[in-house]
Write a structure and sequence with these properties.
Elements lengths: L4 H7 L7 H6 L1 H18 L7 H17 L5 H7 L4 H21 L12 H25 L2 H17 L5 H10 L4 H5 L13
Length: 197
């Protein structure tokens, strides 16, 4: 695993020369590592639903680990690194591993799997509402005569195959200020002479 961006930056900078400098400037160091972490994740085909959230959480976990009085062995090894590039590789791999564990391992203590189904349903409802509004606007652009002809055609075809009922016709008529008798050419509430009932 090669670290490109941060190594180039640190060659021209005298602030971070060893592991203690990395820890003192941890926020700056991890921010410089961010692009390399994203590049390594993509090269390993590791994708996160929200990279920013996973990155920030992974960094917080590293900060917490480094703040402990009794450090794990791997962290103690990090503190004893002589080579700054090895220390940066360790830091990069730990942040990336934290990100992976947090977003994919349900047994991990800090596991959180973002749920997008609810958000997706809300987006679909929103898109349907927008489509309905667009249809309403288009219908309002039609002149009343054309709108009446369209509703009449819809009702004539749909009442026969029972896809809409009288309540639907009444709703459309009320919505667009038509009389039901004008649309159906008869009064549906008056009993026909020819009916058997």
């Amino acid at each position: 695993m090669q670290i490109y961006k941060i190594t180039d930056i640190l060659k021209n900078n005298n602030t971070i020369q060893n592991v203690s400098d990395i820890i003192k400037n941890l926020d700056v160091t991890v921010e410089l590592l961010k692009d390399d972490i994203e590049r390594v994740a993509k090269s390993k085909r590791i994708y996160f639903p929200d990279f920013e959230f996973a990155f920030k959480s992974g960094v917080e976990m590293i900060k917490y680990t480094l703040s402990k009085s009794k450090l794990p062995r791997s962290t103690a090894k990090f503190l004893q690194c002589e080579n700054i590039e090895n220390a940066l590789k360790w830091l990069l791999s730990r942040i990336l591993n934290n990100m992976i564990n947090m977003s994919t391992n349900p047994n991990y203590k800090m596991y959180c799997c973002p749920q997008f189904l609810v958000l997706d349903d809300r987006l679909n409802d929103s898109n349907n509402s927008i489509k309905r509004l667009e249809a309403e606007i288009e219908l309002q652009k039609l002149d009343r005569k054309q709108l009446k002809i369209s509703i009449k055609h819809l009702c004539d075809n749909s009442l026969q195959d029972k896809s809409i009922n009288l309540d639907d016709v009444e709703y459309l008529c009320a919505k667009y200020d038509f009389k039901v008798t004008d649309i159906l050419n008869h009064d549906p509430y008056v009993k026909s002479e020819f009916s058997n009932n």
